[in-house]
């Protein structure tokens, strides 16, 4: 994964802070960069353009046993094109550009379909219309036209996908092999997912705490089996650290992250 996505076209400094502390404890989508424009009535945004944004979500689909289904992770890179627009033809231009990107990545147009509804949805002060993309039946992202309910002239486009899911659709690799590489068989997938997520959180200085963003870190580490972890988590942490470092600057070195996880497991 590291070598496949080492050049994603944006500076690591472009990422939003992982600790959000506004509507959500953590950043869950790059579209949150548009909050000032769409929610606060201000003419600026936190970020715009292409943004590979590491995020943490707990909304991934799970199977009957509670394990994450293939294609879903607790932490992943939300690759988005987020852009304020003034006219609807700008929306069309961004959509056309996305098809060009997919073509360059090897996705043939005849295998890509778009589906959705033109009926707007609404979430508090923001409304929107969402169209979804599929490649050979696999969901690979969506494009959303957004506007402020009180002032519809404040419009923006959010075109997004999960980088790991896009790689999965392109390579057709086994999901766990793609995400975890040489560690795919070293521990259960849910434990690898937790270590991967804990590495991202701790790397951004979000240490375990009783509540708030730190409470999320404690919750994630709490799912790791201490007996399995006794075999050592540092190698897995180092691998995850290298991956997350492609997209954001981690302030905490990987040996410290491994130690923090082990200390939390001994609590």
Label this structure with key terms.
267 residues, alpha+beta, 9 helices, 33% helix, disordered N terminus
Structural description of this entry:
- The chain is α+β, with helices and mostly antiparallel strands and 267 residues long.
- Helix content is 33%, strand content 21%.
- Strands 1, 2, 3, 4, 5, 6 and 7 form a 7-stranded antiparallel beta sheet that branches.
- A hairpin with a 2-residue loop joins strand 4 and strand 5.
- Helix 5 packs across helix 8 and helix 5 packs across helix 9.
- The chain starts with 34 loop residues before the first helix and ends with a helix.
- The relative contact order is 0.15.
Summarize the structure.
This protein is of the alpha+beta class and 267 residues long.
Using only C-alpha atoms, the radius of gyration works out to 19 Å
Give the helices and strands as they follow along the chain: HEEHEEEEEHHHHHHH
Unreliable stretches (pLDDT < 50, length at least 5) are 1-9
* Strand fraction: 15-25%
